[in-house]
């Protein structure tokens, strides 16, 4: 597609303040800017390369996450965002500790690789040695009689497979989400699960598990080790399999996290803004390139590219949420702090960096013209229209709480769960071509939304903001 020289010039100067770009290239069309991003964008890569190199892993509530916020705020200011701020909140903080070991004591002695799940209790440095009981599914664990696991370690499996839409996460996820708490109810002293993932590296997939009173230690085995354990059960001939598990996570009590915000200020401050969201934290075991450094780079690049076409009608606000991985603390805190400040629409990028392949909204019926306009605008990037109702990402609590417009730009998740919550979530896994396609799609969609005069949710007249309640 034809690109103007102005669009190419704008894309080649990603660090110049957005206000300067608007003055220089305000005549560049949104379509040219999005098309240029497809082949020339460097902004998203600059962000994710920078934060993974200069900060690294950003476990929620820790000093590393705080450094990530400072880094992100400096990056936003240097790139011309206005009203950049840290919005702090307090959270209960868990850290993984230093000892993560598992070994089969009998009948087939050998070490296994293990990582703690977020929220796991500690075994203490001396570990726990106990018989392991196998469950093929969470349903099988739920069916076990109460007290049947007293003094034992529950092992929970699943059969997750890769899918483009990531739908298998909902199928396999309960092994991690609720497996430990169910096993505790049955009397188990600890739980290990087959990692909720699809790769065959010896990299356990961590992630949060539901914390209950009297929480037990909970860890994840990588798929090769989990399947090795399952083979042991097959050939044990009724002999008990005994494991020694050592996990030493700690609870630090209350510490501070925060949400980072910044804006491309619109021409009409009375119109509700467009909210673009991602999350800034990662687990301790990786620098979080896919999850979710890339997402923050994508939304920031899109906002800047729209500003390069001229000052948008509506303000574009970026939200780099904190403490998402450990329980959506930032999403909840942002909604509580801003619930009386209407947003027009919320969109989140938090499913890696591979290409956007499907567009969904929750206003296909209430505002069919705008839905159709966006669908047509992104079709040239290989993005399909959909009748599925968008529900929004984890950090869009405010959009759901306000019952406002939501868009989902679904990314290809075929390889996402090879990397998710593992040490392999590193910069080299990002495909720059697919990253730029994300930026191009997001630029097009954000530009349409930021210049929409009527209500995005209904297509009608924009309602006035509700009055703030007096305390």
Detail the topology: elements first, then pairings.
Blueprint: H1 5-11, H2 18-25, H3 30-40, H4 43-54, H5 63-78, E1 82-95, E2 100-106, E3 110-112, E4 115-116, E5 128-135, H6 138-142, E6 153-156, H7 168-172, H8 174-177, H9 179-185, E7 190-194, E8 218-221, H10 223-235, E9 241-247, E10 250-264, E11 274-279, H11 289-308, E12 316-321, H12 329-338, E13 345-348, E14 356-361, H13 368-378, H14 397-402, E15 405-411, H15 416-419, H16 432-450
Helix pairs in contact: 1-3, 2-11, 3-16, 4-11, 11-16
Could you explain how this protein is built, in words?
- There is one protein chain.
- This protein has 471 residues and is of the alpha/beta class.
- Helices cover 34% and strands 21% of the residues.
- It has helices at 5-11, 18-25, 30-40, 43-54, 63-78, 138-142, 168-172, 174-177, 179-185, 223-235, 289-308, 329-338, 368-378, 397-402, 416-419, 432-450; strands spanning 82-95, 100-106, 110-112, 115-116, 128-135, 153-156, 190-194, 218-221, 241-247, 250-264, 274-279, 316-321, 345-348, 356-361, 405-411.
- The strands form 2 sheets. The chain has an 8-stranded mixed beta sheet, sandwiched between helices. Strands 1-10-12-11-13-15-14 form a 7-stranded mixed beta sheet, sandwiched between helices.
- Helix 3 (30-40) packs antiparallel against helix 16, helix 4 packs antiparallel against helix 11 and helix 11 crosses helix 16.
- It is elongated.
- Mean pLDDT is 93; it is low at 1-9, 12-25 and 464-471.
């Amino acid at each position: 597609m034809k690109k103007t020289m102005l669009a190419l010039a704008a894309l080649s100067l990603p660090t110049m303040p957005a206000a300067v770009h608007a003055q220089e290239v305000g005549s560049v069309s949104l379509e040219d800017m999005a098309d240029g991003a497809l082949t020339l964008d460097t902004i998203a890569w600059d962000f994710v390369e920078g934060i993974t190199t200069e900060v690294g892993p950003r476990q929620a509530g820790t000093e590393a996450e705080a450094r990530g916020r400072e880094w992100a705020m400096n990056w936003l200011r240097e790139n011309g965002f206005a009203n950049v701020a840290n919005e702090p909140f307090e959270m209960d903080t868990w850290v993984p500790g230093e000892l993560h070991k598992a070994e089969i004591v009998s009948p087939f002695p050998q070490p296994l690789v293990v990582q703690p799940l977020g929220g796991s209790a500690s075994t203490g440095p001396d570990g726990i040695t106990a018989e392991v009981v196998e469950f093929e599914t969470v349903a099988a664990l739920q069916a076990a009689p109460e007290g049947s696991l007293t003094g034992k370690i529950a092992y929970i499996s699943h059969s997750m497979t890769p899918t483009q839409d990531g739908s298998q996460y909902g199928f396999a996820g309960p092994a991690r989400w609720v497996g430990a708490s169910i096993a505790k109810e049955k009397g188990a002293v600890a739980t290990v699960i087959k990692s909720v993932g699809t790769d065959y590296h010896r990299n356990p997939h961590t992630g949060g598990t539901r914390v209950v009173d009297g929480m037990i230690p909970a860890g994840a085995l990588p798929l090769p080790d989990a399947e090795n354990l399952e083979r042991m059960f097959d050939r044990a001939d009724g002999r008990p399999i005994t494991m020694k598990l050592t996990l030493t996570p700690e609870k630090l009590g209350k510490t501070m996290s925060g949400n980072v915000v910044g804006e491309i200020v619109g021409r009409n401050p009375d119109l509700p803004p467009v909210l673009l969201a991602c999350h800034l934290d990662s687990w301790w075991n990786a620098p979080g390139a896919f999850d979710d450094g890339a997402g923050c780079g994508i939304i920031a690049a899109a906002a800047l590219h729209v500003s390069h076409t001229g000052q948008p009608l509506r303000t574009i606000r970026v939200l780099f949420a904190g403490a998402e991985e450990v329980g959506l603390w930032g999403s909840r805190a942002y909604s509580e702090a801003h619930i009386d400040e209407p947003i027009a629409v919320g969109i989140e990028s938090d499913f890696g960096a591979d290409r956007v392949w499907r567009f969904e909204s929750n206003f296909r019926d209430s505002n069919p013209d705008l839905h159709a306009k966006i669908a047509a605008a992104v079709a040239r990037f290989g993005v399909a229209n959909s009748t599925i109702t968008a529900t929004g990402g984890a950090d869009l609590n405010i959009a759901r709480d306000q019952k406002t417009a939501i868009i989902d730009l679904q990314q290809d998740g075929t390889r996402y769960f090879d990397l998710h919550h593992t040490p392999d979530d590193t910069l080299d896994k990002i495909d720059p071509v697919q990253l730029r396609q994300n930026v191009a799609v997001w630029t097009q969609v954000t530009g349409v939304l930021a210049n929409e005069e009527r209500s995005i949710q209904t297509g009608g007249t924009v309602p006035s903001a509700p009055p703030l309640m007096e305390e």
